[in-house]
């Protein structure tokens, strides 16, 4: 991206806070530009439609995709009139406005609203985070637990003194979980990213973390 956009044109470049280490997660660039936000973490992870709402920021541009269609391909870009009017005629796309994808997205939003799944994300996500913090106390190889709602990162390190990344250990834990019936996702060099469905229950969390606990214990040897 930096090869195509001059630094003076950017106000902020945000990497996914789940996958990168604590030093590299965010880069702030000194630019007198309006805020532009890439909404990687949207209604799936917080008790709000977009994670940025937790910081009372009003972005000029928001993008969303992935969970918006619950498996059906779709992506959206929403901008303030001030920004959008600067780019007239650039909304044409071969697949733009696909009626099937749009219908799927509307159905997803309706299910979230009707079942108050944003609140479930906050409540169950808080429980999930608390249990993961307990595992951090148990295992010194967990260097960090971070995230909000149902998007949580668990970072593996050699030890907490130097916080040296432990990618091999993370990979062993991922495989050990799979062998025990739990599919989890590695992100970045040494992090596990938990991003379960919005319908997750506390009982589901207990089952998953029982397996995760056993996998960490087995993988440390």
Task: Compile the SSE list and pairings.
Blueprint: E1 12-14, E2 26-28, E3 61-64, E4 76-79, H1 81-84, H2 99-114, H3 117-138, E5 142-148, E6 151-156, H4 167-179, E7 185-187, E8 191-194, H5 202-219
What report would you give on this structure?
With 221 residues, this protein is an alpha+beta fold. It folds into two domains: 81 residues, no CATH class; 103 residues, Aspartate Aminotransferase, domain 1 (Alpha-Beta Complex), CATH 3.90.1150. 33% of the residues lie in helices and 15% in strands. It contains five helices and eight strands. The protein has a four-stranded antiparallel beta sheet with strand order 5-6-8-7. It has a two-stranded antiparallel ribbon with strand order 1-2. A two-stranded antiparallel ribbon has the order 3-4. A hairpin with a 2-residue loop joins strand 5 and strand 6. Helix 3 runs parallel beside helix 5 and helix 4 crosses helix 5. The longest helix is centred in the middle third of the chain and has 22 residues. It is elongated and about 60 Å long. About 9% of the residues have low confidence.
List keywords for this structure.
single chain, 221 residues, alpha+beta, Aspartate Aminotransferase, domain 1, 2 domains, four-stranded antiparallel beta sheet, 5 helices, 8 strands, 15% strand
